[in-house]
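Homework-ish question, so no full write-ups if that breaks the rules, but can someone show me the predicted structure for this set?
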Amino acid sequence: MTITENKSEKISHKIKILTGNHAAAQALRQAKVGVVAAYPITPQSPVVEKIAEFISKGKMNTRFVKVESEHSALAVCCAASATGSRVGTATSSHGLMYMYEMLPWAAGNRLPIIINLATRATGAPWSVWTDHQDFFTIRDVGWIQMFCMDNQEIYDTNIQAFRIAEDPRVFLPTVVAYDGYILSHTMMPVIIEKQEDIDDFLPPLKHHINLSDLSQVKGIDPVTTPHLIDRGEEGIAPGYFEYRYAMQKALENSIDIIIEVHDKFAAKFGRSYGNGIYKTHLTEDADTIIFAMGSVASQARNVIKKLRKDGLKVGLVSLKLFRPFPVSYLREFFKNKKQVVVFDRDVGYGYEGVLSYELKAALYGLKNSPFIKGFIVGLGGRDITDQHIIKGVYKAIEESEIGIISHETDFIGLRLEELGDYDESEYFKGG
Amino acid sequence: MANTKKDYQKILGSVQKPVKGEAGRTGSWSQKKPVIDLEKCIPVKSGKPSCFNCWLYCPEAVVSRTIPPKIDFEYCKGCGICMEECPVNAIEMVEVKIE
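A: Not a homework solution, just the prediction itself:
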């Protein structure tokens, strides 16, 4: 986060000490969401608990719908959004995966719903600790996906996300993610802006669908055929192909709007996050770039000074916008870099770290394309230490110089050697 | 391709008014058809445009917003939603012979 002071204006905000979850709840309160439907799941639950508290204290004029599952939670959110209401919710891990069936409906109907995702590993084995696996499971459903690095960013990104999602050029649902526990349960000072400033930045939603307007009977989601549909007096309607084309184009072009909204936010509130799609740290003279997201990027940020003392020209790119993937910006940024070290807190199982292969694909065919080496770190909440990052950077530089291109995944922070003669296969023998 | 941006922005999720007969003549899909008991029907009884749940909920737009409501059997699929939604149980699904 970069803070640009504006001394001409009086301080009009409050600073509160908040967890990431409560920062998200505060943002949803100030965005004046009309409907919240959610189901509890660790580590997200405090978001909606706080919202329930706001509602019971009369601080929020919001309909809270209690549901029996995450699938129903998002189904309620979709229906509420289609009546023209501003809608937000929160979930984690298997909760998000239980919502999965409804996610493409929200995107296809272009409903500007915001989900706060406190990231968590996916089972089995059972884990409630953070990694980014859940975030990547929804890569291909058509949602905008953003990732935060601190609690202020969670609050700010939520406010921006509503404005982005509700822009008539976009109309797409958005996920705002942050690491479970590392941010969701950690307190930090968060600036809470005045309500009238938020109202000014975030005018009431003008939805393209309003099913509560009974003067016009409308439906959403009729069966949409492969071909164009002659709807008589209504004219020729698009087929499925056209709808999906429009959705993809809206996603591609939303990058401009995401940057635009970020810049307007920065101008109004004095806080910016890189260029709105990624944040850089000491990259100007760097030939080696660490590429990571969320908690992993925070950890990497700590060691850059140390690596620079060792004489390595290392910088950090922390990705904020994952979908749409900002390909042209990344190609421009990485065109003359020597090597990129990607740290993934996830695995694209059967392939490699998701960020790693996404970046490789994005830089395909680039002249002077950098050497890219990916590492898997910190799955299921395993601590990522400075040593892990340092080890990764050195190994990547070494492999880059020798010219080893390996397609095997490389894990850092495994402790297999401490397991001794532990043998689970004993349990599975008959008898 | 200069117009692409403008074109895609006009397509925003499939929100449509129901139009009858979109999938061809669907009247033959079901053997049961809704029949409205005009003695129970709210707009008929009150003589005022009211209720019209059958018109509102019909997914095929085959119920008219008139007094009495009329059903176009050429396109009615016989789904029974109108029967389900009628607050005074004025609609019954009756077996109908189709030529």
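Now go work out the reasoning yourself. Hint: Residues 226 and 239 of chain A are 5 Å apart (CA to CA).
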